[in-house]
Amino acid sequence: MSEKEINLLELIPILWKKKWIIFFSTVFALVLMYIYQINQKAPKTVATIEINQIPYSENLKYLKYNSFVKSLQPHFLNTKNYQLQSTINLIKNQLLDNEIIVVPSSVIEEVLINDVDKNFLFKMFVDEISQRSFLNNDLEDFTKMSSNLKLLKITKDKVNTFFIEIEIDHKDKRKLMDYLNFFENAINTEIRKKLNVTFNNYIKFIEEVNEIRIEHLINITPYAFDDEKKYIERYIKVIKGDRYVEVLQKKYDELLLSNPSEFYAARLSRDTINYGLPNQNKLKLMILAGLIGLLLGIFISLISNAIANRT
């Protein structure tokens, strides 16, 4: 054991003589690591942003709209009631007993937008983020704005609060706000468009049904009795005078089209953004590089000394 201790002590003057090799080796390793670090991209951090539902005051407007819409019915759902209440002999109404189009009320409930509320809109908002379909129309603008940002994923905590995670450069936190504004507006605009398409398709469906029913009534008129013809004419006038579509369109416009720029299905919270710590390993890497340079210098010093002793 004492021999080994003496051998270790003998290394000290050897290393001291080679101190400049050790010094420059350490400095060289540190310089290489510094050059490597300054040529790396800026450190990334993950911003976690909460997705907020519309407030109670906004949701109340949708609940009122839903209640109003559910109280309305297109005329053809009340056809039989209308016939029973007419003063025409029911026997003479056999031509009208079987409509050419029969639309169950369950179908109307499926295609009509009558369940819009904060949960419905929130689900649409989350789905749009997941599908990223809102980017198709503004892909060029999005690409320019998000050059240093990356949408990662949607997360949910134990109380069913939803968040989105966005990876950003540590120095580009200011750009995040512009990105969120664009991101939020693009999603809400896309949702409003989809709601409009769905509603307009329903209105078109109702109008087409009424057109076919009127056409059917006109076609059977030549085969009707005179008093039946009067009933058919009256029935056509009732269908044409039905204000269901007009009233429904008015209520929908008041809800979603009166101020399109103010519509939103959900919001991205700017007040509760949580920034994850960026990957800061610079100091650790410099220490590691210094140690490697130091050991390399010692190794070179010992090898060169051994070679010198042999010669």
Core attributes:
311 residues, alpha+beta, Bacterial polysaccharide co-polymerase-like, five-stranded antiparallel beta sheet, rod-shaped
What does this structure look like?
Helices cover 64% and strands 10% of the residues. The chain is α+β, with helices and mostly antiparallel strands and 311 residues long. The chain folds into 2 domains: 2-41 and 280-310, no CATH class; 44-275, 2-Layer Sandwich (Bacterial polysaccharide co-polymerase-like). Helix 2 (19-38) packs antiparallel against helix 12 (282-310), helix 7 crosses helix 9 and helix 9 packs antiparallel against helix 10. The protein is rod-shaped, with a radius of gyration of 38 Å. The protein starts with a helix and ends with a helix.
Brief write-up:
64% of the residues lie in helices and 10% in strands. It has 311 residues and is of the alpha+beta class.
Please identify the oligomeric state. single chain
H-E order: HHEHHHHHHEEHHHEEH
Indicate the CATH architecture of the largest domain: 2-Layer Sandwich
- The level of helicity is 55-70%
List the helices and strands and how they pair.
Elements: H1 2-17, H2 19-38, E1 44-53, H3 56-71, H4 79-85, H5 94-97, H6 105-111, H7 118-131, H8 139-145, E2 149-156, E3 162-169, H9 173-220, H10 226-241, H11 244-257, E4 266-268, E5 274-275, H12 282-310
Antiparallel strand pairs: 1-3, 1-4, 1-5, 2-3
Helix pairs in contact: 2-12, 3-11, 7-9, 9-10, 9-11
